[in-house]
Input
Amino acid sequence: MTVIKPNFLVVGAAKTGTTSLYDYLKQHPQVFMPTKETFYFQSALYRNNHLPYPAQRPAEEIVFEEAAFLKAYSGAGSYPVRGEVATGYLYYWRESIPRIKALLGPDAKLMAVLRNPVDRTYSGYTFFSRDLHEKLTLEQALAAEPQRTADGWDFMWHYVAHSMYAEGVRAFQQAFPRFQVFFFDDLQADPAAFMRQVFQFLEIDPDVPLILDQKNVSGAPKSKAMQHLITQENPVKKMLRPLLRAAFGREIRHRMRTWLKSRNVGEKDRMTAEQYNALLPLFLEDITALEQLTGRDLSDWKRAKG
Output
């Protein structure tokens, strides 16, 4: 029996438009994507981690076994592009690269989407504060990051470290000749043109019409009571959870939860110029290294706010 494998991966990063990218890719008739992310190529990191959610993601969201990972692609033989949009593989490049190369080979097409690291850091913070999981101020949360990391908190809580891209980009460039870097700035400026570039990279029809709208936007909740009901453990969720799991697959449940949260998102949180300028020096060296690796002028990323 022929084993059908993915031939394309988005390897990160989180809060760089990956949810929108996944939605747009799913609309293309030549692309097969059974789920947004499985965490399979970094799954070894979760085997002995028993922190409760939200410090660590639930085990049910992670695919640990190769057979289960490949089973999702068993019906994808007629699709020229088969893959996954992931958020952690670039960050955990030491773990993911050997496993990706062993299963998919060095010729797999891989891409990363990168965002201004200060903006990505703040978006990562507001992602959890929006859902009422992050109880600390931005400054307190950044001070707590080293201890949270040492204690095994999920990479999404590594606000600053997850925004350091150069080391991971260099490693993927060296390991995979068909690795390509894209930029969130371009996705925001012109989603249609951005997706044409992605489709050209994947060597499929670049002119497929798409429904383009932004997904998974961070912002303050309109109703904290509603957000608490959606995101926090409570008697209503405990009662509904087994019914929803019996009736719907993980992907549909995820879309339902995302839709409910999006309905309750109010005005977008804005970082102050003082906060931006305080964070910027942390990333200047990494941005310069990234410019050299990608050939992209990132001077706008290095400019302080007035």
